[in-house]
Amino acid sequence: MKKVLIVEDSSTVTKILKHLIKQHPDITALFAGSLAEGQALYEQYGDEIFAGIIDLNLPDAPNGEMVDYLLHKELPVIVLTANYQEDRREQLLDKGIVDYIIKESRYSYNYALNLIHRLEKNQTIKILIAEDSRPTRTFIKALLEKHLYQVMEASNGLEALDVLKDNPDIKLLITDYHMPEMDGFDLVRAIRHNVDKSGLVIIGLSGEGKGSLSAKFIKNGANDFLQKPFSHEELYCRVMHNIEELELIEQIQDTANRDYLTNLHNRRYYFDKGEVLYNNAVNNDTPFAVAMIDIDHFKQINDNYGHEAGDKVLVFLAEELRLAFSRFVVARLGGEEFSILMPGLSNEQAFTLLDKFRGMASAMTIDINADDGELLNISLSMGVTNYLHESLDQQLHYADQLLYRAKEAGRNMVVGDEDADE
């Protein structure tokens, strides 16, 4: 749970913030009403403090001394103030504050708290700047790092393509128009041959005054455009807006790839991801294990205890599989059937992991009726194969055959390739 230092001398504002903070259970707020109290809290908690929300004018710090103190400690600072002063705002942004927020309404305070979440997410987001001017590149990088983004650099389009190839998890590219080797338009076109707008956000840049440049960038595949010179806040707003739009698309896609009951990946995701893993194994001659898992006598559970109890068993097993095989692709293929894709594991290694999990599962009890504490034990049958066959679908079909051998042999066991060869 991240700690946020909030220094505010107004009892009314503090009361509002304390009420709103209840809607953010992952934030622990440390409240202070003066520079002295704020410094004391920082000295006490130090590195545990993630960011600060600071009133610009305090009784013992009327000129933003608390803000300067925390900036000197290299802490992200969000400034709250009752008075808007353009010169002061520009001065503070130049110093490196995250944002300058006017105390106007509850929305303002909610915005500040939501910005804390944004900063936390930004720590895992990679942004690439493609710009041939070193001073401009350095300036943009410094601004983005104030918002805790991971920033990478390239001096032309060809370098940018190499960086993107080595870092496929880059979320956003900011590219200038005029660059040697490959300009911004050609870079955008090259990227869009392979990556669509939902995979990588591109913001074009130019210092030229032609209005057609923005349209040309966007027509070639950019998501947005910024005219140089731009203000700190314009860059932040454009970047934040596009990142949040990308995250929303990813959230929608993830929901579409999840099983409605267990929240494991579903059949669609399984085969989309599985085809990539299967082809990698074929092309690189590396091991690739595919396992099928089935709950023994699951129909009897539904018949004897009801479908609600059956659903509880499925959810319970799904969570245990997710925790035990977090490195791999785990999916519910339908009913009580689950499958795991394990690239890099030999059949012997996969068999050992599965058999260990099978033993653990048979020793677990599932509470299927909270009212009377009714407990249930389950057992699992599994089949696992490393024979690639002609396709992933065929390999999965063979794993399913091994699963049925486990059923026929008495259930509650794993059958692998060596067992099948006997």
Automatic annotation (TrEMBL):
Domain of life the protein comes from: Bacteria
| Reported cofactor(s) | Mg(2+)
Residue numbers bearing the 4-aspartylphosphate modification: D55, D176
Ranges where the Response regulatory domain occurs: 3-118, 126-243
- Could you name the Gene Ontology cellular component terms for this entry? plasma membrane
Which reaction(s) does the protein catalyse, per the Swiss-Prot or TrEMBL entry? 2 GTP = 3',3'-c-di-GMP + 2 diphosphate
The organism is Oceanicoccus sagamiensis
From the UniProt record, which GO molecular function terms apply?
diguanylate cyclase activity
InterPro entries linked: CheY-like_superfamily (IPR011006), Diguanylate_Cyclase (IPR050469), GGDEF_dom (IPR000160), Nucleotide_cyclase (IPR029787), Rev_trsase/Diguanyl_cyclase (IPR043128), Sig_transdc_resp-reg_receiver (IPR001789)
Q: Which GO terms describe its biological process?
A: cell adhesion involved in single-species biofilm formation; negative regulation of bacterial-type flagellum-dependent cell motility; phosphorelay signal transduction system
Q: Which Pfam families match?
A: GGDEF, Response_reg
Q: What is its EC number?
A: 2.7.7.65
The protein depicted here goes by the name diguanylate cyclase
Q: Which residue numbers delimit the GGDEF domain?
A: 286-419
